[in-house]
Amino acid sequence: MKLSFTGLSVERSGRNILHPTSLRIEAGERVGLIGTSGSGKSTLGHALVDELRTLGQSIAHVPQSPDEALDPLRSIAFHWREAERALGLDPNAARQQELFHALRIEDGDVGKRSWSWSRGMQQRFVIAMALIGTPDLLVLDEPTSALDPVVAASTMTLLREYLSKRQTAMLLITHDLGLASRHAERLLVMQDGQIVEDASTDQLLEAPATKAAQSLSTHRSWLQLPC
Ligand SMILES: Nc1ncnc2c1ncn2[C@@H]1O[C@H](COP(=O)(O)OP(=O)(O)O)[C@@H](O)[C@H]1O
Ligand SMILES: [Mg+2]
Question: Are strands 169-174 and 137-141 parallel, antiparallel or unpaired?
């Protein structure tokens, strides 16, 4: 399913923090939304989740930290059941097993409270929960910034493998051009509340057209990671 909207904008405290923005994402496409801190990435992420849901599409959102998605007083199993219930789905052990296996969290004790799982496992669990309903689009806002680089890389690699066999598109929001270029085929560059560049990852790495993209490219950190 194609995902598109036009003229989306956001005003806060009398200031336009998202200028009118139009975007189209193809089914199964992996798109990176990059830009410096404060450029408006999260604003666009939240606005597009709201807009596309209003248009009837199934959109999942993974926040930066698992703390935002998990109640420390509740068990992992409780969160899973709630996520199924929110989607109107009956409990399905096979679906849970498939997603737990895909994100390599099948050895975690679901009877435990979330804080007893490692940060990496918590975030993988949050991603698995987001995939329960096979959404049209998965929006990940700085999904690995609370994780160490090796756990971050393997989480993104597992997710990419899972998505590669499905029609779920991905919007990866990050300030890290290195991360985005490893996992997205197309990159959108944000600056001052607007998308200033929209190009294939190869094209943007080879010849960034705008100052914003050139600056991200100059200051990128290319970590040598197994992904
Ligand atoms: N609720 C709000 N009220 C006023 N300004 C906001 C609000 N939310 C975000 N902003 C401002 O909008 C800009 C973009 O923020 P944000 O989307 O969080 O950027 P990013 O995710 O790229 O770091 C920032 O300058 C931020 O201070
Ligand atoms: Mg942000």
Answer: parallel
Q: Ligand 1 atom 10: the closest Cα is on which residue?
A: 17
Query: What is the count of structural domains for the chain?
Result: 1
18-59 pLDDT, tens digit each: 999 999 999 999 999 999 999 999 999 999 999 999 999 999
| Structural domain that includes position 93 | 3-218
226 in a domain, yes or no?
A: no
Query: Is 10 inside a domain boundary?
Result: yes
**Which residues are registered as beta bridge partners of 186?**
31, 200
**Cα of 60 from ligand 2 centre, angstroms:** 17
Q: Does residue 84 lie within any of the structural domains?
A: yes
> Which residue, 185, 182, 212, 218, is CA-closest to 197?
212
- Residue of minimum CA distance from atom 6 in ligand 1: 12
pTM: 0.93
Ligand 1 atom nearest to CA at 17 = 12
- Pocket, ligand 1, Cβ cutoff 6 A: 12-13, 17, 35, 37-43
Q: Are 187 and 32 in contact (CB under 8 A)?
A: yes
The arithmetic mean of pLDDT across residues 139-160, rounded, is 91
User: 226: pLDDT confidence band, cut at 50, 70 and 90?
Assistant: very low
